[in-house]
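Question (not urgent): is this output format expected?
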Amino acid sequence: MPDSSIARVVCSELCRTSLETEGKKIQLLLNKSVQNARASAFYYFLTSGLSAAGAVAAWFMLPAPFLIYFLAAAAVVLATAGFWHRAVARQKAGDEPANNSRL
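Got this back:
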């Protein structure tokens, strides 16, 4: 993340203004990236819950093993993607140190 407290040597006032503007734009992009990762995590958790509910409903209402297994597997995959996106959002936000072995 760009740090505005770093002293920089610039050739003119226009360069200083340009550097500040670019720093603000980069920070905005980083913030949007974190928001997108959080929204994706929420979406994956929601669809995982719906798939799990569908698997349970299929268990009781339809004796179709393929449908049950498919929905259960989809729930697991979607939940895994949700945890991954949540970890990425936390890492980008700086809530936890970068640890690529977890991802």
